Amino acid sequence: MKRLIFAIGVLAAAYAASTPARADFAVARFQDHWCRVWVDAAAHPFAAHYVHWVRREWVHHVWWSHHRRHHSRHLVWVRYDRFRTFDAADHHLHLALHEHRCRP
Asked: What average pLDDT does this structure show over 94-99?
């Protein structure tokens, strides 16, 4: 029993070590309208907020009615402010500068 628990602990530790850490990036706009790429977007910057963008996405909705499965697809507006890579956040920082959301 001790070996089983030890093996499960080793497997759990190996799984935790193998999953990559997810670093979120965002474009932070401070009160004086200066923007910069903010690393680790989970920690919100003081006296600033994140610049948001909107895009259209297809949403596939599935529901059950009278023992039958129904599908519908429709476009919805999705608001986003986090990026997986620094390059994507830097690209959106330049877009914000181009759209005059931030000071150059």
From this structure: 92
